[in-house]
Amino acid sequence: MRSSAVAPIDDADTSTALTAERAVVTALGGGCQTPIGALATIGPDDVLEIAGIVVALDGSEAVHGRIDGPRAMAAELGRRLGEQLLADGAADILTGAKRTAGAVGEIQP
Predict the structure, then answer these.
(1) Chain-centre distance of CA 54, in angstroms?
(2) Is residue 1 part of a domain?
(3) Cα separations in angstroms, 37 against 7, 15, 63, 77, 85
(4) Which of 23, 27, 85, 100 sits a CA distance of 20 to 30 A from 79?
(5) Is 0.85 topped by the overall pTM?
(6) CATH number of the domain that residue 71 is part of
(7) For residue range 48-99, what is the model confidence (pLDDT) as tens digits?
C-alpha cells in the first residue's frame, strides 16, 4: 500500500520495475553487498521484461537470464527469474561470494 503523501509523484512503470527487481534480489537471498544485477522495463503492449545476472567477485563466471510477462505479475516474475538463476548455477557463485565476504569481514577493523 502506497502512502498518499507520495502518490502525486509515484510513477506506475517505475514502481512495477522496482517490485520486479526487488523480487529477483530477494529470491537470490541478496543484498547491497551481493554481486547481483536486475533490470526491469516495461516494453510494448505493457509487457514487463526482466533481465538478471549474478557474477563471481573476480568476474570469472556469470549466470544471466531473462523473463517477461504481464506487468501485474511483477513480483511473481522476479521470483521466478531468481529461481531460474539459482538453478542455472547462481547458487554456487553466491556461496563463494558469501564465503569471501565472511573472510574479508573478519580481518576488517
Answers:
(1) 9
(2) no
(3) 28, 17, 10, 15, 11
(4) 100
(5) no
(6) 3.30.160.40
(7) 999 999 999 999 999 999 999 999 999 999 999 999 999 999 999 999 888 8
